[in-house]
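Thread: Modeling a multi-component assembly for a lab meeting

Hi all, long-time lurker, first post. My supervisor asked me to bring a structural picture of a complex we are working on to next week's group meeting, and I have zero experience with this. I have the sequence lines for every component (865 residues in total). Could someone generate the structure of the whole assembly? Inputs are pasted exactly as I received them:
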Amino acid sequence: MQTLVTGLSVGGIYSLMAVGYSLIFSILSFSNFAHGAVIMLGAYIGLALATRLHWGLGLVVAGSVVGAGIISVFNERVAYAALRRRRAPSLFLMISAMGCSVFLENTVYATIGSRFFAFPEFFRREVVSLWGSSLSLLDLFAFTVSVGAIFALHLFITKTKTGIAIRAGVNDMTMCSLMGVNTDRLISIVFFLAGAFAGVAGVFLGIKYLVYPTMGWVTNKAYIAAVIGGLGSLPGALAGGLILGVLETLVSTYLSSVLRDVFSFTMLIALLIWLPNGLMGRETEEKI
Amino acid sequence: MDYELNVVMLACVNMIAVLGLAVFTGFTGLFSLGHAAFVGIGAYTSGVLTYHWDVPFFFALTAGTAAAGLSSLVIGIPTLRAKLRSDYFAIAILGFGEALRVCLENLSVTNGARGLSVSELSGPGWIVGTLILSLLVTRNFLKSRFGALFVAIREDPTAAEMAGIDLFRMRLLSLAVSAALCGASGALLAHRLAFIQPVMFTLTQSTQLLASVIAGGIGSISGPVIVAFVFTALPEMLRSLDMWRLPAYGLLLVLIMIFRPQGLLGYRELPDLFRRRQ
Amino acid sequence: MTAPEHPRSPGASLPLQSEASSPLLQVRGLTRSFGGIRAVESLSFDAARGGITGLIGPNGAGKTTVFNLITGVYRPTAGTISLNGVDLTAKRPHEVVRAGVSRTFQNIRLFNRMSCLENVMVPLFARGRSSLGAFFRTPFVREEERRTREKALAVMEEMGLADAAHRPASTLPYGLQRKLEIARALACGLLVQGPRLLLLDEPAAGMNDAETRELGEVIVKVQKDFDVTVMLIEHHISLVMDICTHIAVMDRGALLAEGPPQAIRSDERVVAAYLGRPRGRGAGGKTEFERKGNDAHDR
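Re: Modeling a multi-component assembly
Sure thing. I ran the full set together rather than chain by chain. Output:
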């Protein structure tokens, strides 16, 4: 039971990060490997707001959401817009994303340095007990916010006009622009949303662990979660994150924590062989 | 003089690994974020052999090459058989690299994360000799029917399959050849630096390899090889800017994709340039 | 209108059919659904040896899906496909090619950065025999390459493409790209023992009447010269009526009618399928049939 609770709390953060991959994939059909760097930057923004300006948690999250959102949109404008306008293959977008990730991570490394920073303590080191297992306040809060945010995003996508435009864009970008939808704006909104989620995730990651340039490495796990759930599917990202979190915690509790990451990647490969589109992904068979 | 020689030798070693990745990414069209793992396998296989058993360098080099080629089957068979999307494949091979690092760090025969001090066995003769041999053999290979099949797969995998190409076998072959070249590079590297550590073969190094291939040009051997030389030699000469080397690689990837996706010599070779002038 | 010469008149094809008693391609109960939607539903038909079989029907009738099922791109949900008695149902695409089936695509899919000649050499190379020698460019490898080049050139000459051999495929004009794709598909069959089936998916798409007629002549010629069985999907009804020895009509995933061109032309169900659909998904196909079909009637 304890394992399950711990697993879910880790999984919640994975889901939060996985959503960003899924959102962008759903509209541009490529894996935005720069998402991890955006999360890392979100954490640094949150850190700066918390330690320099001594803002409270709510404001820190809000600031990080806006900051990471803007970075994400800026990233798209600089690194992807030109490529998607000339309909470059998605491999090119992926390489460009990889380049952004390397650039951002190492620029932070070269300027701010590889030091580890800690957030001020927003939460008392207190544990709540839940069904006989203990859970830190932070984890409980993070989990609630993650699931809540994903649910809100889901409502946004399915109920609002912009959300519907996004879903239409998912189906057919060209058609959308012919119908008079401003696709550039649409894509910017999607990147802002992804960035916003990255901001929240960055702050939580930073509080739970620490802030350092390569913290975005964890996002590889989130990417795996998104793939497990089916890239492009929001419920899939949530499910994938939770499943991965629980299974990983099981492995590190009962087998070995060294093997945890190896297990995640192995599971990814095994799953993709059985379900090439993940648990809830759309069938992406190429039209011939 | 010694210093310059060292830099040139390191660049030559790197060129072999980049040549390997060029076969896979540049000619077969698959994207890899894990080729440094094959360099690592070559380095550790040969290093362990010479360190523990004093195996002659020639055999260690051969064993490193073979081990990298064979180990590529471990990751290649499941992923390529399943015809993973290219981004899924990239992440799977990244996971393979991670798994390898975990193993290297926890085995006693590799001396764990502290690293292994091997003897300095690969002199300039070995390095230049291996480089020339690799270039010749790879050129022949890509000129043969296999090269044509790889390019067909890169251009249109579906049409290639409908032309009777066994996608799985050909992609696997391309991966094995490319991994073997990386393995040779690793064996030379280990016995040039005389010291290897698991952290030398991670995502950062894979990114450098990929950056060289993309910057050099898809579908070209000479382009990536030239770029590999420049990429290794330049930062070594400008040691003080070492911090900015990786950001520069990252920026370069983005700029190339935006402004010159064909890279330095996309789909061409160095001699073609001279032929055209005539 | 000058009709291209028939490969053989319908009467002449009869003895041939009795000669080799079974049809070349047998499709039985073929079904494929995509997420609950039946794209093809219990479809059965044959393609006679040596003939040109037309597969027609309104857009969205599932014709290309049938080609994809035959060539192994999709696995059927149910049903069987066999070529000359060999079961193709569970084969992977390249195995289907090796069994003697090759195809072209609705949207041209050439290896754009390769020369035209190399495009045609690829299927031959795919069945090449050199292996380790490739690293050392042994005499065997060179010899194999030379022979492959000659064979490919011969196919290109047959298709009237010899002049373009060394141009990059992407620089060819549209009509020639279509022909090059046919040449590549023909090359797939060169090393196959036994009968071969050539599937053409809308070879005349985007062509004007003159180009279409010329293409029809080419198809008839290669059918004879390369001794292949041809099956084609086409919306130019006049082309289908002119060159096909047998026609299968599909509508909404099922077989609507089957028979020689004359019978299909006057089949009420076929005419109804093209004309009488309440809200035609196949508006393009409809007008096409209306125009060209009637025009064929008048002759």
